[in-house]
Specification:
Structural class: alpha/beta
Helix content: 55-70%
Order of helices and strands: HHHHHHHHHHHEEEHEHEHHEH
Strand order of the largest sheet: 2-1-3-4-5-6
Distance between the termini: 103 Å
Shape: elongated
Protein backbone atom coordinates (compact mmCIF):
# COMPACT_ATOMS: atom_id res chain seq x y z
CA UNK A 1 0.00 0.00 0.00
CA UNK A 2 2.89 2.32 0.66
CA UNK A 3 3.87 2.25 -3.04
CA UNK A 4 0.44 3.47 -4.21
CA UNK A 5 -0.68 7.05 -4.51
CA UNK A 6 -3.69 8.39 -2.64
CA UNK A 7 -6.06 7.94 -5.58
CA UNK A 8 -5.14 4.30 -5.98
CA UNK A 9 -5.42 3.73 -2.26
CA UNK A 10 -8.93 5.18 -2.15
CA UNK A 11 -10.14 2.56 -4.66
CA UNK A 12 -8.80 -0.42 -2.68
CA UNK A 13 -10.82 -1.84 0.17
CA UNK A 14 -8.61 -2.52 3.14
CA UNK A 15 -9.10 -4.40 6.39
CA UNK A 16 -9.61 -1.15 8.29
CA UNK A 17 -9.71 -0.48 11.99
CA UNK A 18 -9.33 -3.51 14.27
CA UNK A 19 -10.23 -3.30 17.95
CA UNK A 20 -7.21 -3.99 20.12
CA UNK A 21 -7.33 -6.41 23.02
CA UNK A 22 -8.90 -9.70 24.00
CA UNK A 23 -12.63 -9.87 24.86
CA UNK A 24 -13.35 -10.63 28.51
CA UNK A 25 -16.09 -12.97 29.72
CA UNK A 26 -19.55 -11.39 29.72
CA UNK A 27 -22.67 -13.25 30.89
CA UNK A 28 -25.17 -10.54 30.02
CA UNK A 29 -26.33 -12.44 26.92
CA UNK A 30 -27.76 -15.17 29.13
CA UNK A 31 -29.74 -12.64 31.15
CA UNK A 32 -31.18 -10.62 28.29
CA UNK A 33 -34.32 -11.19 26.23
CA UNK A 34 -34.86 -12.00 22.55
CA UNK A 35 -34.16 -15.73 22.81
CA UNK A 36 -37.30 -16.70 20.90
CA UNK A 37 -36.58 -14.23 18.09
CA UNK A 38 -32.98 -15.43 17.74
CA UNK A 39 -33.75 -19.16 17.92
CA UNK A 40 -34.49 -19.77 14.17
CA UNK A 41 -31.33 -17.99 13.05
CA UNK A 42 -29.27 -19.69 15.76
CA UNK A 43 -30.51 -23.15 14.73
CA UNK A 44 -29.68 -22.45 11.08
CA UNK A 45 -26.22 -21.14 11.96
CA UNK A 46 -25.58 -24.22 14.11
CA UNK A 47 -26.69 -26.50 11.26
CA UNK A 48 -24.50 -24.73 8.72
CA UNK A 49 -21.53 -24.77 11.07
CA UNK A 50 -21.90 -28.48 11.80
CA UNK A 51 -22.31 -29.40 8.12
CA UNK A 52 -19.29 -27.31 7.14
CA UNK A 53 -17.21 -28.75 9.97
CA UNK A 54 -18.06 -32.37 9.14
CA UNK A 55 -17.49 -31.79 5.43
CA UNK A 56 -14.01 -30.34 5.80
CA UNK A 57 -13.12 -32.87 8.51
CA UNK A 58 -14.00 -35.76 6.20
CA UNK A 59 -12.02 -34.29 3.31
CA UNK A 60 -8.90 -33.76 5.41
CA UNK A 61 -9.28 -37.09 7.23
CA UNK A 62 -9.49 -38.89 3.89
CA UNK A 63 -6.22 -37.32 2.78
CA UNK A 64 -4.49 -38.85 5.81
CA UNK A 65 -6.40 -42.15 5.77
CA UNK A 66 -8.10 -41.29 9.05
CA UNK A 67 -11.68 -41.43 10.33
CA UNK A 68 -13.81 -38.95 12.22
CA UNK A 69 -16.52 -39.49 14.82
CA UNK A 70 -19.47 -37.14 14.06
CA UNK A 71 -20.86 -37.40 17.61
CA UNK A 72 -17.60 -36.20 19.12
CA UNK A 73 -17.36 -33.43 16.53
CA UNK A 74 -20.87 -32.28 17.48
CA UNK A 75 -20.04 -32.33 21.21
CA UNK A 76 -16.81 -30.40 20.63
CA UNK A 77 -18.58 -27.77 18.52
CA UNK A 78 -21.29 -27.40 21.15
CA UNK A 79 -18.80 -26.87 23.98
CA UNK A 80 -16.73 -24.49 21.89
CA UNK A 81 -19.77 -22.38 21.03
CA UNK A 82 -20.92 -22.30 24.64
CA UNK A 83 -17.48 -20.98 25.59
CA UNK A 84 -17.55 -18.49 22.72
CA UNK A 85 -20.92 -17.14 23.84
CA UNK A 86 -19.50 -15.71 27.07
CA UNK A 87 -16.77 -13.71 25.30
CA UNK A 88 -18.81 -12.46 22.37
CA UNK A 89 -16.94 -14.51 19.79
CA UNK A 90 -18.31 -15.47 16.41
CA UNK A 91 -19.91 -18.94 16.04
CA UNK A 92 -17.25 -21.64 16.12
CA UNK A 93 -17.00 -24.07 13.20
CA UNK A 94 -14.39 -25.89 11.18
CA UNK A 95 -14.14 -23.47 8.28
CA UNK A 96 -12.91 -24.62 4.88
CA UNK A 97 -10.42 -21.80 4.41
CA UNK A 98 -8.87 -21.85 7.90
CA UNK A 99 -8.73 -25.64 8.09
CA UNK A 100 -7.10 -26.04 4.68
CA UNK A 101 -4.55 -23.30 5.36
CA UNK A 102 -3.75 -25.03 8.66
CA UNK A 103 -3.53 -28.40 6.92
CA UNK A 104 -1.24 -27.08 4.18
CA UNK A 105 1.00 -25.55 6.83
CA UNK A 106 1.63 -29.05 8.17
CA UNK A 107 -0.61 -29.09 11.25
CA UNK A 108 -1.31 -32.59 12.56
CA UNK A 109 -2.58 -32.24 16.14
CA UNK A 110 -4.70 -29.89 18.26
CA UNK A 111 -1.49 -28.24 19.44
CA UNK A 112 -1.56 -26.32 16.15
CA UNK A 113 -4.86 -24.73 17.22
CA UNK A 114 -3.32 -23.71 20.54
CA UNK A 115 -0.38 -22.07 18.76
CA UNK A 116 -2.78 -20.32 16.40
CA UNK A 117 -4.88 -19.01 19.30
CA UNK A 118 -1.78 -17.69 21.07
CA UNK A 119 -0.59 -15.94 17.90
CA UNK A 120 -4.02 -14.40 17.37
CA UNK A 121 -3.96 -13.14 20.96
CA UNK A 122 -0.51 -11.59 20.44
CA UNK A 123 -1.63 -9.91 17.22
CA UNK A 124 -4.86 -8.67 18.83
CA UNK A 125 -2.86 -7.12 21.68
CA UNK A 126 0.10 -5.58 19.86
CA UNK A 127 -0.08 -5.71 16.04
CA UNK A 128 -3.58 -4.71 14.92
CA UNK A 129 -2.23 -1.54 13.29
CA UNK A 130 0.00 -3.62 11.01
CA UNK A 131 -3.04 -5.39 9.54
CA UNK A 132 -5.29 -2.33 9.11
CA UNK A 133 -3.87 -1.19 5.72
CA UNK A 134 -3.82 -4.75 4.31
CA UNK A 135 -6.06 -4.99 1.18
CA UNK A 136 -8.99 -7.38 1.60
CA UNK A 137 -8.09 -8.80 -1.82
CA UNK A 138 -4.96 -10.30 -0.26
CA UNK A 139 -7.03 -12.12 2.36
CA UNK A 140 -9.46 -13.25 -0.34
CA UNK A 141 -6.59 -14.60 -2.45
CA UNK A 142 -5.29 -16.67 0.47
CA UNK A 143 -8.75 -18.18 1.00
CA UNK A 144 -9.35 -18.84 -2.71
CA UNK A 145 -5.98 -20.57 -3.14
CA UNK A 146 -6.60 -22.73 -0.09
CA UNK A 147 -10.21 -23.66 -0.83
CA UNK A 148 -9.58 -24.29 -4.54
CA UNK A 149 -7.85 -27.52 -3.56
CA UNK A 150 -11.14 -28.83 -2.17
CA UNK A 151 -13.00 -28.56 -5.49
CA UNK A 152 -13.11 -32.10 -6.83
CA UNK A 153 -14.37 -31.97 -10.42
CA UNK A 154 -13.49 -35.61 -11.07
CA UNK A 155 -15.44 -36.66 -8.00
CA UNK A 156 -18.43 -34.64 -9.20
CA UNK A 157 -18.30 -36.42 -12.58
CA UNK A 158 -18.24 -39.78 -10.82
CA UNK A 159 -21.26 -38.79 -8.74
CA UNK A 160 -23.19 -37.86 -11.89
CA UNK A 161 -22.19 -41.09 -13.57
CA UNK A 162 -23.24 -43.16 -10.57
CA UNK A 163 -26.46 -41.38 -9.57
CA UNK A 164 -27.98 -38.44 -11.43
CA UNK A 165 -30.19 -37.58 -8.47
CA UNK A 166 -27.20 -37.13 -6.18
CA UNK A 167 -25.46 -35.20 -8.95
CA UNK A 168 -28.44 -32.86 -9.26
CA UNK A 169 -28.44 -32.33 -5.49
CA UNK A 170 -24.73 -31.48 -5.65
CA UNK A 171 -25.25 -28.91 -8.43
CA UNK A 172 -28.28 -27.32 -6.76
CA UNK A 173 -26.38 -26.97 -3.48
CA UNK A 174 -23.35 -25.44 -5.19
CA UNK A 175 -25.38 -22.96 -7.26
CA UNK A 176 -27.53 -22.09 -4.24
CA UNK A 177 -24.45 -21.32 -2.14
CA UNK A 178 -22.85 -19.24 -4.90
CA UNK A 179 -25.97 -17.31 -5.91
CA UNK A 180 -28.11 -17.16 -2.76
CA UNK A 181 -25.71 -17.68 0.14
CA UNK A 182 -24.49 -20.55 2.29
CA UNK A 183 -27.64 -20.94 4.40
CA UNK A 184 -30.06 -20.90 1.47
CA UNK A 185 -27.85 -23.14 -0.64
CA UNK A 186 -27.56 -25.78 2.09
CA UNK A 187 -31.30 -25.68 2.78
CA UNK A 188 -32.00 -26.19 -0.94
CA UNK A 189 -29.56 -29.09 -1.08
CA UNK A 190 -31.05 -30.76 2.00
CA UNK A 191 -34.60 -30.26 0.71
CA UNK A 192 -33.73 -31.79 -2.66
CA UNK A 193 -31.96 -34.73 -1.02
CA UNK A 194 -35.03 -35.41 1.15
CA UNK A 195 -37.32 -35.16 -1.88
CA UNK A 196 -35.15 -37.62 -3.84
CA UNK A 197 -35.09 -40.02 -0.90
CA UNK A 198 -38.88 -39.91 -0.63
CA UNK A 199 -39.20 -40.50 -4.36
CA UNK A 200 -36.90 -43.52 -4.26
CA UNK A 201 -38.44 -45.13 -1.21
CA UNK A 202 -42.02 -44.46 -2.31
CA UNK A 203 -41.57 -46.65 -5.39
CA UNK A 204 -39.44 -49.54 -4.11
CA UNK A 205 -38.09 -52.36 -6.22
CA UNK A 206 -40.09 -55.58 -5.91
CA UNK A 207 -38.61 -58.75 -7.40
CA UNK A 208 -40.53 -61.91 -8.29
CA UNK A 209 -38.22 -64.79 -7.34
CA UNK A 210 -37.55 -68.40 -8.15
CA UNK A 211 -35.15 -71.10 -6.99
CA UNK A 212 -31.72 -71.42 -8.59
CA UNK A 213 -31.74 -75.08 -9.78
CA UNK A 214 -30.09 -77.50 -7.35
CA UNK A 215 -29.63 -74.91 -4.58
CA UNK A 216 -31.46 -73.25 -1.70
CA UNK A 217 -30.88 -69.82 -3.23
CA UNK A 218 -33.61 -67.66 -4.76
CA UNK A 219 -33.11 -64.91 -7.32
CA UNK A 220 -35.03 -62.48 -9.52
CA UNK A 221 -36.76 -64.32 -12.39
CA UNK A 222 -35.82 -61.46 -14.75
CA UNK A 223 -32.09 -61.76 -14.06
CA UNK A 224 -31.44 -65.48 -13.56
CA UNK A 225 -32.49 -68.89 -14.84
CA UNK A 226 -34.66 -70.11 -11.97
CA UNK A 227 -37.40 -72.59 -11.19
CA UNK A 228 -40.75 -71.32 -9.94
CA UNK A 229 -42.80 -73.37 -7.46
CA UNK A 230 -46.30 -74.10 -8.84
CA UNK A 231 -49.03 -72.32 -6.91
CA UNK A 232 -46.60 -70.08 -4.99
CA UNK A 233 -45.64 -66.52 -5.89
CA UNK A 234 -42.43 -65.38 -4.18
CA UNK A 235 -41.90 -61.61 -4.05
CA UNK A 236 -38.97 -59.80 -2.41
CA UNK A 237 -39.56 -56.23 -1.23
CA UNK A 238 -36.33 -54.21 -1.40
CA UNK A 239 -37.28 -51.35 0.92
CA UNK A 240 -38.64 -50.72 4.39
CA UNK A 241 -42.42 -50.42 4.46
CA UNK A 242 -44.05 -47.15 5.47
CA UNK A 243 -47.07 -45.03 4.66
CA UNK A 244 -45.62 -43.60 1.43
CA UNK A 245 -44.80 -46.89 -0.30
CA UNK A 246 -47.07 -49.64 1.02
CA UNK A 247 -49.72 -48.94 -1.64
CA UNK A 248 -47.08 -49.11 -4.39
CA UNK A 249 -45.75 -52.41 -3.01
CA UNK A 250 -49.24 -53.90 -2.83
CA UNK A 251 -50.06 -52.71 -6.34
CA UNK A 252 -46.86 -54.18 -7.80
CA UNK A 253 -47.32 -57.55 -6.09
CA UNK A 254 -51.01 -57.70 -7.05
CA UNK A 255 -50.03 -57.09 -10.66
CA UNK A 256 -47.56 -59.98 -10.44
CA UNK A 257 -50.31 -62.11 -8.89
CA UNK A 258 -52.67 -61.32 -11.73
CA UNK A 259 -50.00 -62.31 -14.26
CA UNK A 260 -49.28 -65.57 -12.40
CA UNK A 261 -52.98 -66.41 -12.12
CA UNK A 262 -53.35 -66.31 -15.88
CA UNK A 263 -50.90 -69.24 -16.09
CA UNK A 264 -51.92 -71.38 -13.09
CA UNK A 265 -53.87 -71.09 -9.81
CA UNK A 266 -51.94 -69.41 -6.97
CA UNK A 267 -52.69 -70.49 -3.41
CA UNK A 268 -49.77 -68.80 -1.58
CA UNK A 269 -48.06 -65.42 -1.65
CA UNK A 270 -44.64 -65.51 0.03
CA UNK A 271 -43.12 -62.12 0.84
CA UNK A 272 -39.34 -62.22 1.35
CA UNK A 273 -38.55 -59.48 3.89
CA UNK A 274 -34.75 -59.66 3.94
CA UNK A 275 -34.44 -56.02 2.83
CA UNK A 276 -37.18 -54.65 5.12
CA UNK A 277 -35.65 -52.91 8.14
CA UNK A 278 -38.84 -51.40 9.57
CA UNK A 279 -42.62 -51.35 9.16
CA UNK A 280 -44.53 -48.31 10.37
CA UNK A 281 -48.07 -48.40 11.77
CA UNK A 282 -49.69 -47.35 8.49
CA UNK A 283 -47.95 -50.16 6.61
CA UNK A 284 -48.88 -52.64 9.36
CA UNK A 285 -52.55 -51.71 9.04
CA UNK A 286 -52.33 -52.05 5.27
CA UNK A 287 -50.79 -55.52 5.65
CA UNK A 288 -53.71 -56.56 7.85
CA UNK A 289 -56.22 -55.49 5.20
CA UNK A 290 -54.12 -57.07 2.46
CA UNK A 291 -53.95 -60.39 4.32
CA UNK A 292 -57.73 -60.38 4.73
CA UNK A 293 -58.26 -59.52 1.06
CA UNK A 294 -55.96 -62.34 -0.07
CA UNK A 295 -57.74 -64.80 2.22
CA UNK A 296 -61.11 -64.04 0.62
CA UNK A 297 -59.55 -65.07 -2.72
CA UNK A 298 -58.15 -68.30 -1.34
CA UNK A 299 -54.55 -67.04 -1.17
CA UNK A 300 -52.52 -67.36 2.05
CA UNK A 301 -49.90 -64.76 2.88
CA UNK A 302 -46.55 -65.99 4.30
CA UNK A 303 -43.42 -64.09 5.33
CA UNK A 304 -39.79 -65.22 5.14
CA UNK A 305 -36.43 -63.87 6.32
CA UNK A 306 -37.96 -61.26 8.62
CA UNK A 307 -35.29 -59.31 10.52
CA UNK A 308 -35.21 -59.46 14.32
CA UNK A 309 -36.15 -55.80 14.96
CA UNK A 310 -39.04 -56.05 12.49
CA UNK A 311 -40.23 -59.27 14.12
CA UNK A 312 -40.11 -57.53 17.51
CA UNK A 313 -42.38 -54.84 16.07
CA UNK A 314 -44.81 -57.35 14.62
CA UNK A 315 -45.11 -59.39 17.83
CA UNK A 316 -46.97 -56.54 19.50
CA UNK A 317 -49.29 -55.93 16.54
CA UNK A 318 -52.48 -57.54 15.38
CA UNK A 319 -50.92 -58.47 12.07
CA UNK A 320 -47.96 -60.13 13.76
CA UNK A 321 -50.19 -62.20 16.03
CA UNK A 322 -52.44 -63.31 13.16
CA UNK A 323 -49.55 -64.36 10.95
CA UNK A 324 -47.18 -65.74 13.60
CA UNK A 325 -47.52 -69.32 12.31
CA UNK A 326 -46.75 -68.16 8.77
CA UNK A 327 -43.38 -66.53 9.41
CA UNK A 328 -40.36 -68.57 8.27
CA UNK A 329 -36.62 -68.37 8.86
CA UNK A 330 -35.70 -68.68 5.18
CA UNK A 331 -37.36 -68.86 1.79
CA UNK A 332 -36.32 -72.50 1.40
CA UNK A 333 -37.84 -73.47 4.75
CA UNK A 334 -40.97 -71.49 3.90
CA UNK A 335 -41.52 -73.50 0.72
CA UNK A 336 -40.97 -76.75 2.61
CA UNK A 337 -43.49 -75.73 5.27
CA UNK A 338 -46.04 -74.65 2.64
CA UNK A 339 -45.59 -77.94 0.74
CA UNK A 340 -46.04 -79.97 3.94
CA UNK A 341 -49.18 -78.02 4.88
CA UNK A 342 -50.70 -78.61 1.44
CA UNK A 343 -49.80 -82.28 1.62
CA UNK A 344 -51.54 -82.63 5.00
CA UNK A 345 -54.63 -80.82 3.73
CA UNK A 346 -54.73 -83.05 0.63
CA UNK A 347 -54.39 -86.26 2.63
CA UNK A 348 -57.00 -85.11 5.11
Amino acid sequence: MGLLDNAARSEITVVGSIARGIPLPDYSAFLGGGWIELAPSAILIALVGYVESIAVARVLATRRCQKIEPDQELAALGLANLSASIVGAMPVAGGFSRSVVNFDAGARTQFAAIVTALLVAVVALFFTEVLEPLPQAVLAAIIVVAVAQLIDWEGAKEVFGYDRGDGASLVVTMLGVLLLGIETGLVLGVALAIALHLKRTSTPHVAVMGRVPGTEHFRNVKRHQVECTPGVLIARVDESLYFANIDAVESTVEHALDSALTQAPVHTLLLVMSAVSSIDSSAEEALVRWDESLATRGIRLHLAEVKGPVMDQLKSSGFGRSISDRVHLSTHLALESIANAISVESSG
